[in-house]
Protein: Tetratricopeptide repeat protein
Amino acid sequence: MYLENTNSPTIEEVIAACKPGVAAEVRASLKTKLHNSFSEDDALQGAIKFLEDSDYDFDALYEFLDMPIGLSAKKVTSRFNYKHVLTVAASVILMIGVWWIFYKKNTESEIRRNVFHEPGLPVFATIEGKKDFHELMSAYRMQDVKTGLKFYYKLIKKEPQNDTLHYWGGWLFFIDKQPDSAVVHFENAVKTINGKYYYKAQYMEAISLYLNKQKSLSKELFKKIKLDKSSPYQKDAIHLLSEPNLW
Structure:
């Protein structure tokens, strides 16, 4: 039998942390406790699920439950009724959670469908004849992120302003599902205005921003691409911006 973790926070603690005015430190501490916690309490499971799917937005949970600020044990005449209400709410939260997961995956799938295929350079290609770049590209084409990053870091230390290296570094992080790091490297590649990978890096930066949950910045960059007639990704940007479900 799987025993409940006695160190797991209670539903009362979660609800208390949702109330307006609660210090960020308190919520951060509770968030840490909730990670990897397990409970057979349906209400607590529902609350945890909601928080996980909303990036631990306690205010959103509070608004969803629409609980009065002065809620306390004194206002509830029966412990059973209190738990019953929370359990019912948990069921609704779980349904909302399932819908949110589907919606999130659907929008991300739409974004990913608009990512162009980047096969990589031929494995014999090099930067000034360097063997390390040959190894980086070989690793990229094999989707071997660990090896690719090993050579990427080795090369970028010597040439920190090299837009080609930043571009391929961005792709390594992208295929490894690290959009935050991908954003940084694609952005660095874009800094070379007349660089070979300027337009590609710019478009992939916008894609990565979206997947990194930075929709407003992603949208602004897509708008910039939309207005640039020189960009080969202008039509792609127009299409994505026209999708209301994405924004």
In short: The radius of gyration is 24 Å. Residues 1-5, 67-82, 98-102 have pLDDT under 50 and may be disordered. The CA atoms of residues 226 and 239 lie 9 Å apart.
